Amino acid sequence: MKKINWGIIGCGDVTELKSGPAFNKVNNSRLVAVMRRDAAKAKDYAQRHHVPRWYTDTNQLINDPEVNAIYIATPPSTHEAYTIAALAAGKPVYVEKPITISYGAAISMVDVANKNNVKLVVAHYRREQPMFKKIKQLITDKVIGDSSFVRLDYYKKALTREALRDTKNAWRVDPAIAGGGLFHDLAPHQLDLMHYFFGEAKSVSGMAINQAGLYTADDIVAGNILFKNGVVFTGLWSFGIADVAEKDFCEITGTRGKICFSVFDGRTIAVTTGDTTEQFTFAVLQHVQQPMIEKVVAYFLDESENPCSGTDGALVMKWMGEMTGNKAVTIV
């Protein structure tokens, strides 16, 4: 394989700017086919993005002889079936986060990838963005000394009834489609970063409730992680507060200082040691997934390591299940 010819399953909103155009901007990569069940929307996407072919049937895209890699960008409930079908056809897969709706389903995907010796990558794309690579470097270089604990707070105002009537929002709070509520949609990015920064967990615990009663999924989650290296993580996610209380904040505290940043809403890292604070500001990325797609292409071409394995994606699902299951679990 000398060039990655991509086919996208699910060319919806997430692919319009975040990912789709990047497949044609990365070296040795091009987008050759897309699939969406709505023929008019599939054709429109293909025409606007200059994609040679479009389909309404998943199997037709998977079996397109020119397509040699698949990007799956559908809602999480379909990730398992589409990924397994692509892997069974011998085509490597780049699948959106969360990897799927449950830990068991994620492990099934990993098992099929291993059995067929086909590559699988999960789109926890913040790992490859310059801002988060810088945070990883600061931690590794012990700029704030030894990391001790992390506090993450993510609060968003409740979705309105009007917003919930929009299918773009409704599926995200339907556990059958998303695996849970907005926690399952957004927390995978944050928790994967914690895994990227601090490694494996010794124990995970938490609780989740439906506090506002606006939909069937839980809307507030509290979670704790004790990492094997001794770092303690505490997170609180709330999706039913007043807009004046919205917050996106993470603080990593070490023996000599702290690192403060926002996962979703910011472009600046503040590093405080002693009485000095240094800031690092990063440019807005036109296509937020492009750095990750570059790594995925290199991995598929045997030029790099896997930037985020299926096992990594499954682990995040395991952590979320432990946080929302109202139990403490020791991980062997």
How would you describe what is shown here?
Mean pLDDT is 95; it is low at 326-330. The chain is α/β, with parallel strands linked by helices and 332 residues long. Helix 10 packs across helix 12. Helix 1 (13-19) links the parallel strand 1 (4-9) and strand 2 (29-35). The longest helix is centred in the middle third of the chain and has 17 residues, at 182-198. It folds into two domains: 4-125 and 289-306, NAD(P)-binding Rossmann-like Domain (Rossmann fold, 3-Layer(aba) Sandwich); 127-285 and 315-330, Dihydrodipicolinate Reductase, domain 2. It is built from twelve helices and 15 strands. The chain has a nine-stranded mixed β-sheet with strand order 14-13-12-11-7-10-9-8-15, covered by helices on one side.
Summarize the model shown.
With 332 residues, the protein is α/β, with parallel strands linked by helices. It has helices at 13-19, 39-48, 58-62, 79-88, 103-116, 130-140, 161-165, 167-170, 175-178, 182-198, 290-300, 310-324, and strands at residues 4-9, 29-35, 53-55, 69-72, 93-95, 120-122, 147-157, 201-209, 220-227, 232-241, 247-254, 257-261, 268-273, 276-281, 329-330. Helix 4 (79-88) packs parallel to helix 5, helix 5 packs antiparallel against helix 12 and helix 10 packs across helix 12 (310-324).
